[in-house]
Design brief:
With 289 residues, this protein is an alpha+beta fold. It contains 4 helices and 14 strands. The chain has a 6-stranded antiparallel barrel. The protein is globular, with a radius of gyration of 22 Å. The N and C termini lie far apart (63 Å). It comes from Gossypium aridum. GO terms for molecular function: sterol binding. Belongs to the OSBP family. One of its GO terms (cellular component) is membrane.
């Protein structure tokens, strides 16, 4: 296939994952150690599996397979608290491999959440994303950090380069809306990314559902917790959809969801403590002998 078009699509895919984060400043649950989630869409040829594999530090791993490609990665965060804001620096590498052997790898950019104490809470993604390819092309994307007076926030700008370092395509867009590209180094590029310009559309965000959820979930994400007929007996007991607190929340039983969440998290802390205590005792015993 077209290798240049492929890396352009990979870049748009890497950016699109941030689209629904605008307006999502909190989350209902933290995954428990050993908690899993799997999805199988035979009609789309896609299978996905993820698991929380470490509690301290928190580490989540995933693996996904589709028609002609595989995607896997792990996710961890380093946090910095600045008083009125918090900075989240992702640690981990995402890998996308195609059946012809071409591989792309990248890491996520920094996420900051502002006005934690006073004012309207908002998040921003900023930093440099370098998509490394093992063949002809690589890509560098800059997520522009939002300033207080910025009238056009969430901008992303970057280039695709060949092995010699020549810029063969320019990418422009916004992480919460769309991404476009222009062939070449972008000289004389348009001032905006509207379809009427010379830029070609790579990705555009779907319209949000008419009734927004508290966590600003997409129409697709809303369906992921559904237990369809015949599904439950095919899931392992560790699957997220079987968490009682999550089920209570989906049913609108907020008090029961909160109390069950606290019970499960206390249980997790006890399990982790006993696990650590067991291994420390075993280690000390080996030293004594």
């Amino acid at each position: 296939g077209n290798s240049l078009q492929r890396i352009l699509n990979v870049a748009a895919f890497a950016v699109s994952g941030y689209a629904s984060s605008e307006g999502r400043h909190c989350k209902p649950f933290n995954p428990l150690l050993g908690e899993t989630y799997e999805a199988d869409y035979p009609d789309k040829g896609v299978r996905f599996f993820s698991e929380k594999v470490s509690h301290h530090p928190t580490l989540i791993a995933c693996h996904c397979e589709g028609k002609g490609w595989k995607f896997w990665g792990d996710s961890n965060l380093r946090t910095k608290f600045w008083g009125r804001s918090i900075q989240l620096d992702p640690v981990g590498v995402l890998t996308l491999e195609f059946d012809d052997g071409e591989i792309f790898q990248w890491s996520k950019v920094t996420t900051s959440i502002y006005n934690l104490i006073l004012g309207k809470v908002y998040c921003d993604h900023h930093g440099l994303m370098h998509i490394h390819g093992n063949r002809q092309y690589s890509c560098k994307l800059k997520f522009k950090e939002q300033s207080i007076l910025d009238r056009n926030p969430h901008q992303v700008h970057g280039f695709v380069e060949d092995l010699s370092g020549k810029k063969v395509a320019t990418l422009i867009g916004k992480w919460d809306d769309s991404m476009y590209y222009i062939n070449g180094d972008g000289s004389g590029k348009p001032k905006d990314c509207s379809p009427s310009s010379s830029a070609t559309l790579l990705w555009k965000r779907n319209k949000p559902p008419p009734n927004l959820t508290r966590y600003n979930l997409t129409s697709f994400a809303i369906t992921l917790n559904e237990l369809t007929p015949g599904l439950q007996e095919n899931l392992p007991p560790t699957d997220s959809r079987l968490r009682p607190d999550q089920r209570h929340l989906e049913n609108g039983e907020y008090d029961r969801a909160n109390s069950e969440k606290q019970r499960l998290e206390r249980r997790q802390r006890m399990v982790c403590f006993h696990f650590l205590d067991f291994h420390v005792s075993k280690l000390m015993h080996s030293f004594a002998n």
